[in-house]
Amino acid sequence: MTEQELSIVLQQGEGYRIEFKENLSNLDREFVAFANASGGFIFLGINDIGVIKGFEFNNKIKSQIQDIANNSDPPIKILIKQIKNIVIVEVREGSDKPYRCASGFYNRTGPNSQKMTRDQIVDFVKIESKVRFDELVKRDFSAIDFDENKLDKFLKMAGITHIPDISIMLKNLHAAEIQQNETYYYNTAVLFFAKNLELQYFHTKVTCALYKGKDKVTVLDRKDFNFDIVDTIDQTMIYLKQRLNVRYEFDGSPARKEIPEIPWEALREAVINAVIHRDYFEKGANVMVEIFDDRVEITSPGGLPKGLRKEDFGKISVLRNPNIANLMQRIDYIEKMGTGIPRMQKLLVDAGLKPLSYEISGFVRAVFFRETTQETENTTQETEKTTQELLLSIIKKTPAVTREELAENIGLTPDGVKYHLDKLRKEGIIEHRGPTKRGHWVILQEEKT
Asked: Could you list the residue range(s) of the whole structural domain that residue 329 is in?
């Protein structure tokens, strides 16, 4: 590691693969945790908030550090390097997991090393043969496909200074590796920094849908978002905010207070969880965000990660995609691992709503219950009215427009367009004349005038 790389690490702070320590206390636990996870770096001589304190290093200390690694069961491979008054210990990911030290078995959860319980150890052994999607190299992804502007945006959000050597930056983010001066991008880099994610993966999208009523019969509106992982989450939240109810309270101050029918923070947490923790090896499904008259469902493909039991769901954190979670934590999209569900439940209780319900099978589905009031029905009717007005404006300009063209123009499915056209016909507002394929639409009210 160079001084330039060290500077980047200090800006990034502690994370899934980075640990700061002022001394050798509990070093054996950190070794074991990194060896049981994806490996990492321990910086001796830096405190928890990234302030350099310095570390006295000599051959005796070097031998002591090596002995700690050798005394682990089984022994752990490390590399030791000194930069000025800081000692850097690189801990390799173990090839013979699980590893333990005198005080037990430890694993890495976000930026913390946590001791594993007996059941967690058993489950850990079961799942360790599984390859992680976010750490796989995507061989057909190159610098041509990489969007440096997206990296710049991420670095600004994370408070990290950009350096000219992008490969080193990505390596330190554990989004790429460098072999013989060649950069190989992990799927992490693809999901966060691809110029066009749709060209790389089709299953990484989030599909949002608005239904009429309480069943999946009539689709009023649908949007697919498959941008980089951060923009996809942001666009999904915009979709929800545009289609759920909001009331306003006035407390005498100049600004009115916005009260959403479901707390935005709770919905955002559920969307982020669905995107971060989904099984990206499952290419036959994508994350779904569905709005019904009485509920909002957010569904993530893949079920629970192996090793996480239903009774422990929401209590402990088992990361299916640890590096995706690590990068999202760096930009404050997630906080401490394992606290999301209790936080969402509290937000709902404070808002006077029903508790969040989870359905777990081959999918994980979060169900938020809406208040089925007249206001909800009015919102649905208003959405229908807006959509129909948009259809009429297009028909007025292009009477020969097809149902498929209308669907493409307003972002609905053809079936959704058919629903609205049929309703307009029944109400005597429009009429289709001529052959099905070559006919044209007539707005009857305008014809009468």
From this structure: 206-369
